[in-house]
Amino acid sequence: MTTWVPDVLGDGYQQLTIPLGSDPDGEGEVEATLIRYQPAQETKRTGRAVLYVHGFTDYFFQKHLAEHFADQGYAFFALDLRKCGRSLKPGQTAHFVSDLTLYDAELDEALRLVREQTGEGQVLLVAHSTGGLVLPLWLHRRQKKADGTAGLGVSGVILNSPWFDLQGPSYLRNVGTVAVDALGRVKRKSVVPKTTLDTYGVSLHVDGNGIWNYNLDWKPLGGFPVTFGWLRAVRRGHAQLHRGLDIGVPALILRSKASYFAPRYDPQVDTADAVLDVRQIARWAGCLGDRTTIVPIPGARHDVFLSSDEPRAQAFAEVDLWLDWLHGHNSAQAPR
């Protein structure tokens, strides 16, 4: 384990490398990166922390998210998963894993480190898009262990536009999934055709129509190519979710009010989910197995926390309201 060093996000941000050993998928040594935010001005301490997990073609750069949680008294941490963002090494296939369970190693260690850093307090998990599939599956596996999710010190989960199903025509979810399963076994790193599109990236980035600045090597405008092996792992995860999970803690799900898919940028992309079908998020939200609150945000983008001012403010207000409820709920459930 290396020591904390300054992070690319600047003042108040540090990073820690988590070595993970040899890659089961044959791409050398892999590592994850834990990022923490420590503001110069001391904030109120509550003994609570946040651990954030990004999605596909993504990494942690949302400083305003860290600052909001810090203002609420949370110690903030984020995790760049193996082969993603800060953790991507030369010669590795960005975001590639053949099985979503491989992420258990960095999730377990990141959570251990967060609790070690914050005095074994309660940890709120926050995840976006594909991270919103990875985290519930991980919690479901941990819930089946002797001490369950409670033994992890997890207080709740906030999922920001989680990827709960494959968007597009229905044949992609049946015949297409059968094909992906077969090709994903024998041609794992072959690229699925027509899976890069810069519509959403242009909406976000300052070089396009957006206001957000981030590293285009780690989050390219058109996205990283989707491989058959990775998509097979995701579809297997979807199937498990659809059979029903038990994550063991309450969840808040934020999503846009509407989806809008376009082959090229137009202004409607700024006010809708241009990546996922929000109807699928609504349909499968009940599969998490505990109390679930789902809130549609009118005018929100795929990442609701990267929306324009009004929907972004509403999303943060909904988070704060739900956190007030969560603290009361968990206090009421605590042994007396």
TrEMBL record:
Domain of life: Bacteria
Keywords assigned: Hydrolase
Ranges of residues in domain Serine aminopeptidase S33: 48-258
UniProt cross-references to InterPro entries, sorted A to Z: AB_hydrolase_fold, Hydrolase_4, MAG_DAG_Lipase
A UniProt-annotated Pfam family: Hydrolase_4
GO-annotated molecular function: hydrolase activity
Protein name as catalogued: Alpha/beta hydrolase
Organism: Rhodococcus tibetensis
